[in-house]
Write a structure and sequence with these properties.
The protein is of the alpha+beta class. The chain has three helices and six strands; from the N terminus they run ααββαββββ. The chain has one domain: Thiol Ester Dehydrase, Chain A. 22% of the residues lie in helices and 46% in strands.
């Protein structure tokens, strides 16, 4: 798991978005993002791209948790509830995995544990190890 933490610790975009990896274990990950003014869109709610980025980061952590490079080949997101302040959490869990593909469900929830978004991701699993 240290390779995953080190690799994702170098994710400059996630850092710029104020995203933090909370935990990672085989096939699972949890990340959080404290919402700031720069996350809000013109109507004062968290911009969809910010929520997507949080979910995608948790997806990356879970899919790379085996220590080999995994990259997204297909993702989708459904936004279920608007949020404009506080902390949002993304929890990724592996649904299925083969030698080449992995399928993941990521739930984004607010501080009241209400579902904000549901993200589905499919990753292509490469043979190369994560960079040291």
């Amino acid at each position: 798991m240290e390779d995953v933490k080190r690799c994702l610790g170098r994710d400059r975009f996630a850092s710029h978005c104020n995203i933090e990896l909370v935990s990672v274990e085989t096939g699972r990950a949890r990340a959080k993002m404290v919402l700031k003014d720069y996350h809000l869109n013109g109507v004062g709610i968290a911009q969809g791209g910010a929520i997507f980025t949080l979910a995608d980061f948790a997806f990356a952590a879970a899919s790379n948790s085996y220590g080999t490079v995994a990259v997204a080949v297909n993702v989708s997101i459904s936004f279920l509830k608007a949020v404009s302040s506080g902390t949002v959490y993304a929890e990724a869990r592996e649904v299925a995995r083969s030698s080449k593909l992995g399928s993941y469900t990521i739930e984004v929830r607010d501080e009241q544990n209400e579902l904000v978004a549901l993200f589905q991701g499919m990753a292509y699993r490469k043979k190369e190890r994560l960079p040291a």
